[in-house]
Design goal:
Helices cover about 40% and strands about 20% of the residues. It has a seven-stranded parallel sheet, with helices on both faces. A three-stranded mixed sheet has the order 12-9-14. A two-stranded parallel sheet has the order 7-10. Helix 2 runs parallel beside helix 4. The longest helix has 22 residues. The radius of gyration is 19 Å and the shape is globular. The structure holds uridine-5'-diphosphate.
């Protein structure tokens, strides 16, 4: 397959590129490098620096490269930032996808795999969450991702584009090589923040709220290894190549861990006491997010290989302990 990975220099994008190349696929990457890193670009991928809102850039790329499937990671993805800067999210996520779809229609590229999120559900009525459960996002990030899904639905119906939307739960961990991993600036995700403590960059981890209706009062999340997410993208691309219908799939392990449990596993993995302090709740955090991924397993044949939280955190620690400043010096 010839795959165009938009956002292939970012966290999940770079891991998917590594998996695609390991599977012998041809990969072209486009990334504006605003939040991605050139060092995360796989040396065997062809790299174009550019922005998906730039129609001329996309038209030139599609004219030059024969693309079978687009995998689209090029979006802003910070919940908190989306609340304070919603228009940035509407511009990058929605307007960017509109320009992308115009370019795909013009170029006759008719298959796309798209990174969506558990944030499309908002506060779930029940767990595990199924794909046809209500979608009521509680922040602009989830709202723009849900709108992108709907854009694919309507544009796909009108112009014959088929899509797979993958709703990730909590992506974490790093490639087994230790060459690439999670790096955000500023960092806002739980596991990288916890690992900043044994790395000497932070004195303690803040626990945002211990009065949720969960077993120890802290939020429950479904942590899924980024390598397992990467495999799901390959399966989704193959599914579309085989003629599969447009569809939406959850990707998680179906097991929830509290924030306190994640800190405990990180203590065991790193051998560091990792002091923790309870602080007020973070706005917009649902108490529990746990996926049912049965549909992805049945329809796509997805089979996560790295479900243990110890293994996930050990792989993250391998990356963060050797790259305490991410891709920086
Ligand atoms: N969290 C926390 N302290 C932190 C960062 C995150 O307690 O310093 C909690 C957060 O409230 C949520 C969970 O950890 O319940 C996972 O947060 P993250 O930002 O990693 O992912 P999200 O679930 O928001 O996508």
């Amino acid at each position: 397959m010839n795959i165009l990975v938009l956002g292939g220099a970012g966290y999940i994008g770079s891991h998917t590129v590594y998996a695609l190349i390991e599977a012998g696929q041809n990969v072209v990457i486009a990334d504006n490098l605003l939040t991605g890193f050139e060092q995360a670009v796989h040396p065997k991928a062809k790299f174009y620096k550019g922005d998906i809102r730039d129609r001329a850039f996309l038209d030139a790329l599609f004219a030059k490269e024969h693309i079978d499937v687009v995998i689209h990671f090029a979006a802003c993805s910070l919940v908190g930032e989306s609340v304070t800067q919603p228009l940035k999210y509407y511009d990058n996520n929605l307007c960017g996808t509109k320009v992308l779809l115009e370019a795909m229609v013009k170029a006759g590229v008719d298959k796309i795999v798209f990174s969506s999120t558990a944030a499309t559900y908002g506060e779930p009525k029940r767990v595990p969450i199924l794909e046809d459960d209500p979608t009521e996002p509680t922040n602009p990030y989830g709202e723009t991702k849900l709108s992108m899904e709907k854009m694919f639905k309507w544009v796909g119906a009108a112009h014959g584009i088929r899509y797979v939307s993958l709703r990730y739960f909590n992506a974490c961990g790093a490639h087994e090589s230790g060459e690439i991993g999670e790096a955000h600036n500023p960092e806002s995700h739980l596991i990288p923040l916890i690992l900043q403590v044994p790395n000497g960059k932070r004195e303690f981890i803040s626990i945002f709220g211990d009065d949720y209706p969960t077993k120890d009062g802290t939020c429950v999340r479904d942590y899924i290894h980024v390598t397992d997410l990467a495999q799901a993208h390959i399966l989704a691309a193959q599914y579309l190549m085989a003629g599969g219908e447009s569809d939406i799939f959850n990707l998680g392990n179906g097991v929830g861990f509290t924030v306190k449990e994640v800190v405990d596993v990180a203590r065991a993995v790193t051998g560091h006491p990792i002091p923790a302090r309870v602080e007020p709740r973070r706005a917009g955090d649902p108490a529990q997010l746990i996926a049912s991924s049965e549909k992805a397993k049945t329809v796509l044949g997805w089979n996560p290989q790295h479900a243990s939280l110890e293994e996930i955190i050990a792989s993250a620690w391998k990356w963060h302990s050797t790259h305490p400043n991410g891709y920086g010096k």
